[in-house]
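Run: sequence + phenylalanine -> complex structure.
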Amino acid sequence: MENKKHGFGSSIGFILAAAGSAVGLGNLWAFPYKVSANGGAAFVLVYILCVIVIGSIAMISEIFIGKRAQANAVSSYKKANKNLGFLGLIAVLVPTIIICYYSVLGGWTLRFTVNSFQSIASANNAVSFGSFSSNVYEPVFFTLVFMVMASIIIMAGIKDGVEKSSKVLMPTLFIILVFIAIFCLFLGDGVKDGLVYYLKPNFAELGFSGVVAAMGQAFFSLSIGMGTLVAYGSYTGKEIKIGNATFMICLFDTLVAFIAGLAIFSAIGALQPESLKSAQGVGLIYVIIPQIFEKMGSVGQIVSFLFFAMVVIAALTSVISILEVSVQFITQKFRKNRKKVTLVMSLICFIISIPVAWSVGGAFDGKITIFGYDLLTFLDEISNTVLMPLGAIGACLTVGWFIEKKPSANPFKTLKSLQEEGIGLGKFGKIFAVMVKYITPLLMVFVEVMGVRGKFIEFGAKGLDYLPIVITALIIIAIMIALYFIFFKNKETGDNSVEEQLEK
Ligand code: PHE
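>> structure
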């Protein structure tokens, strides 16, 4: 390891941390209902394809960009190509936007864990969720506690914070998941109906919008298209095999999502089949699932605790990876103490998350909105639909075309120079080179365009309701480009050695 003290101590440490970033609410909550809504096994098939042809290629690119530079996202992109540093700046900003709503959901989950024993006894969870989420103080309090947990880990640094916690939390998560899945699969007759509802292949239902949804889900779930993998990648050294690591992370992420769906839909099918059709969105894990645990009697209290603790772990290991991106950049660029930077960044994100919590929870009669959207949807759309795919396209194009001094149209020439820089990949190198240069970016551009087009249709009769989201995203990009060329391009932006120097 080049950064012994501050980098990951082992390959497995990196893999678990990156898997921790990947496995999150996207897997345990969004994936299951997206599958059931978009043609069951047909969606799973397309999803796996997206992970292989698009996700894994972007993931390798991002880890490589970070690894070769051993620096924060801005410096990493800058080192790849001086004119592309703005991609790093966007990659620092987007995760920061995501924290502001992800931690609200993390807070909700935390509250359900804490209240597993109490709220289940209190008759109707649907009511209890509504009164909790629309409360002015409670969701804010739990968001704060969740942010504090994430900050403590990030303050401790990569090796002593991120790596150590991932090594304990990820295996714990997996054990709980398998336990819950087995438990749910044996709940009785209705399990079969639940599974049929979850997985029955239906290509007509999938449609093109399902394909776009699968790709969006793959981006979000694998944490690609922003700085998290660049940041984590920068803390790895020569011993890491990027190809193998990517394979493990993608496999683990997909497996967890799939198993979570098995568990959730078995339970709904067995205990509350009438809810199968409405098992969507926020209602799925915050209303229907608690109702089901309630039906299990006293066992349900324990299962509920385990289930929500598992979701908290998943959300926490994701949020730390998101927080790390900005903490790493600011620490290195401004040469400030990591703990102080973490504190300031968390505080800023927490303050922004307060109106988000009120808005999405329906406090103040649901009056806090922006362009007619609740703040969570607004931030989520900007980051997920528009900025994340653009970030992933940027990462692939950077590796495919702009890292070399003299880019050539021949992918095998590019591969040679990538291999000289240590990308590894063995016999898959050739496939990767062709994919990253041509196929993956083209596919991504196509799906991105179709995705945004689909949103225009979905979101408003006049098709214009989505415009504010696209315009806001474009303004963000423009500002980041301007900031980069004015303030960062020709100035020192630091690298991973800065933290070590600061300690001396
Ligand atoms: N991958 C995480 C999930 O599935 C979310 C995430 C997105 C984390 C982007 C980091 C970066 O929930």
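>> summary
The chain has a mean pLDDT of 93. The chain has 21 helices and no strands.
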